[in-house]
């Protein structure tokens, strides 16, 4: 029998998805040095590896989440996070947006819809890289005095 959890639990709100296993995609960027982050890496050749446990919110704006956009948004969000955290230069935003479009198409999104998403990213995506950001979510919820028992 497991011991009960006592005291506080804290979790981040605002995310829809959490990765259950590592995922890899080509980004189209080329770096002088590789990037290593707790939840993702980007190789010199632009290979993005997002690690198990990474949380993200799917496609932004009025996008409808489906397998193709969810998949594409995972790598796009990690790339934008790398820009916000100063790990890669913001000049790579266009390549990350193009990667999103291609991953959408590869995932079964109708090409015209993928192009519309791409254009929306080109027009409005830059605002997300100007936000003051840390690696941690802005909404943290803590629940106090919980006692939970595991099933026996």
Automatic annotation (TrEMBL):
Lineage: Bacteria, Pseudomonadati, Pseudomonadota, Betaproteobacteria, Nitrosomonadales
The species this protein was found in: Candidatus Nitrotoga fabula
Domain of life of the source: Bacteria
Protein name (record): Uncharacterized protein
């Amino acid at each position: 029998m497991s011991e009960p959890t006592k005291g506080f639990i804290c979790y981040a709100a605002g995310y829809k998805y959490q990765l259950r296993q590592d995922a890899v995609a080509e980004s189209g960027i080329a770096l002088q040095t590789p990037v290593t982050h707790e939840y993702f890496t980007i190789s010199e050749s632009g290979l993005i590896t997002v690690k198990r446990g990474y949380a993200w919110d799917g496609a932004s704006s009025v996008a409808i989440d489906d397998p193709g956009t969810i998949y594409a948004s995972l790598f796009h969000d990690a790339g934008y996070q790398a820009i916000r955290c100063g790990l890669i230069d913001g000049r790579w935003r266009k390549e990350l947006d193009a990667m999103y479009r291609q991953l959408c198409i590869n995932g079964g999104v109708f090409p015209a819809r993928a192009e519309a998403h791409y254009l929306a990213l080109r027009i409005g995506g830059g605002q997300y890289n100007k936000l003051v950001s840390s690696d941690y979510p802005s909404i943290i919820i803590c629940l106090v005095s919980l006692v939970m028992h595991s099933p026996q």
